[in-house]
Automatic annotation (TrEMBL):
Gene Ontology CC entries for this record: plasma membrane
Annotated keywords: Cell membrane, Membrane, Transmembrane, Transmembrane helix
Ranges for domain Major facilitator superfamily (MFS) profile: 37-410
Keyword Protease: no
Region (Disordered): 1-22
Location in or out of the cell: Cell membrane
Matching Gene3D superfamilies: MFS general substrate transporter like domains
GO molecular function, one term: transmembrane transporter activity
Annotated protein name in UniProt: MFS transporter
Origin organism lineage: Bacteria, Bacillati, Actinomycetota, Actinomycetes, Kitasatosporales
SUPFAM superfamilies according to UniProt: MFS general substrate transporter (SSF103473)
Keyword check for Cell membrane: yes
Cross-referenced InterPro entries: MFS, MFS_dom, MFS_Efflux_Transporters, MFS_trans_sf
Amino acid sequence: MRGTRTTGPAPATGSAGAPPASTVRSLRARTVRGWGAVVSVAVGIFALMTSELLPVGLLTPIGSEFGVSAGTAGLMVTVPGIVAAISAPLITVLAGRIDRRIVLCALIGVMGAANLLSSLADHFSLVLAARFLVGVAVGGFWSIAGGIALRLVPEHHVGRAMAVIFGGVETATVLGVPAGTYLGALAGWRTAFAAVGLLGLAALVCMVFLLPTLPAVRVVPLSALPRLLRNRPAVRRGLALTLLLVTGHFLAWTYLRPILEERTGADGGTVGTLLLAFGVAGLVGNVVAGFGAARHPRGAPAAIGATTALAVCLLPVVNGPVGAVPVVLAWGLAYGAVPVTLQTWILRAAPGETEAATSLHVCAFNFSIALGAWGGGLVVDRSPVLGVVVPAALLVVMAVPVAMAAGRFAGVGAGPP
């Protein structure tokens, strides 16, 4: 996808062969507007991911109020994950020729309204209905926004713009989930959900004013998705890495609060602090991956899998909140690199088919979130909460041979992975 750049006669030049001042100012203004649009999309991603992951920090109080087990409360993560997995390819196809700006704004508005609905729910089933809407918004928004940097900034800025957009995922972990946990501890989980709903509406305002019109560059037919899977082995391998890394991560991380409560005796505020440490490390991992994922397409996911497996395996020996800090930091550093690393893999694996490839990636990513949360829920309802450690570690460590067995990317080496 090449965005809306156009070609035409060369611009008039000044006396020394340089463009005239008016042209330079115009280019500069377009670049500034493009970066403003990038930031607005990052705010939207931040709001969406905060919404999707918020229950992780509030699992215990929500389960207690509605009288459901930890595994059942984990459905608040499973439901939007499943729905997002389905809605990602469907919305990409159904969007057709609709301006992508309109689609993105509509989806972020749905997310804001759904969280306000959750804050007013008087039954757990109503919370799950609202989480269904969150899943629709997450899947559709991410599948379109994942490759939108190509259309907002000059080509030489695309890598940095992608890091900013996907920095919204890590910032949600750094600020959104810990802040929601703190707010839930201070004023109740309903206040936390209402705050995320208002955040979604604020993101909508930002996007309305900062996003340019984004007419569809190409319509993605439903047949393009299976064709992409058949013809692009690199895409299939990228989706396999997504399933292993993300499912394994969420199998354990969804239940991090009860794990920390059991192993360290931590209360809600302490858990919020540890989640903040996880998020800060994740932000560092996101930045590192922004520079390293393209240079080391095989090594990056392999390192993520090995580091995550090590961190998860250390959970049973954690003793006290201080002892949990290095484990949480290492885990956060590894997971923070996941979104940019996998999105970089997918975009390079399917050049020219950005929306179709990204929709499949978002489908796999969110299905993996749902599968991990659901599988972890089955384990914690039938065994000690630390029972999630072994299956989580096995899944993420399997990503190491899958990544290292790949060939080299076109443009970096002699062929696709």
